[in-house]
Each structure stands twice: as structure tokens, then as C-alpha cells.
Amino acid sequence: MESARLPPVATLPDLSTEERAAVLDQLFEPCIPLHTISVNLLRETSFKSYTDLVGSIGLQLTALAQSSSASDSEWLQDILAAHPRLGQTKVESTLSRAEQAQLNVGGESSAQSLTELNLLYEQTFPGLRYVVYVNGRSRAAIISDMKARIERRDPMAERHSAIKVGLRLVAWEVTTDLLRFKAMCDIAIDRVRKASGGDGSG
After folding, report:
1. What is the pTM of this model?
2. N or C: which end of the chain has fewer CB within 10 A?
3. pLDDT, tens digit (0-9, with 9 covering 90-100), for 57-71
């Protein structure tokens, strides 16, 4: 599936609020709390690349994760919950549906395992949703990762795992700040790569 083209990154400050929100929706998922904290960032900051933009949003999300404020925690949970559950049969987001397509291949028993693990994860970490970079990974690999994260039983580590960017995905020049970040940003960077023809510059 071909992603819609992103506007040149240098033009972001000149876009309307709605257009900047649409860029965030394309990179992450449609989410009012993310719009609230990040739309102005796209107006106030001149980014050299979309990779830098994703890294800056990763910093915003990390600040929420590290905050002791209950309201910050709720904001982060709402942002993470914008991503659909893995293996869910009805996925509104066209990009997420395409990214998760390989999870629909395989037997009913592994599909049921994924459903049960989603439930167990959300019981183990109330208010959080399991978020991982899926594209190209098998259902068995996802199930294994999910089990390990549930067994770890560390809510703070889960918040950070949902945000941080893995090194394996970043194929172009990146900032050192970006290299500290994983899942939501992995997904966004992959979407940048697809929408910009592979260079991430925009």
C-alpha cells in the first residue's frame, strides 16, 4: 500500500492547524491529545527532516512518561490507546491495517493467543495498550515479545517501550536524540520512509 505523500517538512510552519494535525495523523494515529501537545511544535519549529520531527515528538512523549503528574499519565495513555490492538479484526486506520496484515496469516489458535495476550497485557498494565513496531514481523515474534513484556511487569518500562525508536529501523541519517527513542516512533518513521520515497527527509 502506498502512503499519501507528506508535505515538504520545511512547509509545516506555514500549514493550517488542521493540515498540521493531518500530518500527525498520518505519522502516528488520529488522536486529539497528540494534536494538543504537538500541533504547535510543527508551527514553532523548523525541522531539517521528518526524522527529526518524529524524534522531537518522541521527546514530548518521554516527558509525559517521566512526569509524576496524573494528568500527564492520562494524556500519554490516551495517545498510546490511539493505536489499534494487534490482531483486532476491525482496524479503522488504513495504515495500521496494512502494517498488521501479516498478523492475520496463520491459524485460529495463534489469533486467539493474540487476543488473550492483549487482554492480559491490559489487565497487567491498566490504562496502557500494547504498542510495537509490527511491519514485517511474524505473529509468533509479536506473541513472544508480548509475553516477555507482560512477564517483566514494569509499567514505566512499558511506557518507554511504547515510545522509543529501535535502531534497526533507521536507515538514514538521524540525530542522537532520536536514537534514544521505540514503537510509536518506529511506526511513524516507517510511514515517513514510505511517504517520502525512502529518504525520510520530506
Report:
1. 0.69
2. N
3. 888 888 888 888 989
